[in-house]
Design brief:
This protein is 49% helix and 18% strand. It is built from 3 helices and 4 strands. It is rod-shaped and about 95 Å long. The longest helix is centred in the middle third of the chain and has 32 residues. α2 packs antiparallel against α3. It has a 4-stranded antiparallel beta sheet, with no helix packed on it. The protein folds into 2 domains: 75 residues; 46 residues. By secondary structure, it is an alpha+beta fold.
Amino acid sequence: MTQNTQQQSSSVSKISSYLLLIVAIVMSLAIVAIFSAVYAYMIDCLIQAGFLLIIGAFALAISLVVLYQTRRNAAALQDEAPKVMTIIECKNCGTKITRDFQRGDFVFKELGACEKCPEQKQMITGVYKEIKTKEKTYAI
């Protein structure tokens, strides 16, 4: 599972469990109202069936809208994870390579041989995260 997928699933799980419980209760009551409307229609209580159908449909629609809005807001609040980079440098020739961070990277860790000078080993000289800044726009 990639890091973005994990973040998306964690942002969706940030939805309050109390809100989900309330939405589930309202949905179940809406379904009960709709089934009661069908039963009332079958025993010729048309006015009662109409009211129950309207109440059930309205409650079901409201609970679906609340669930949709909550999921959308949780996804919108999700921040993109900063990209962590590793700087690898050769001790002898000074060649610098920047690559994505890999688990186990730390500063002063010795890696394999350099491509330019195979007798020397490369070393991690830096680990940093890229910070994206928002561009400021000014109205003239």
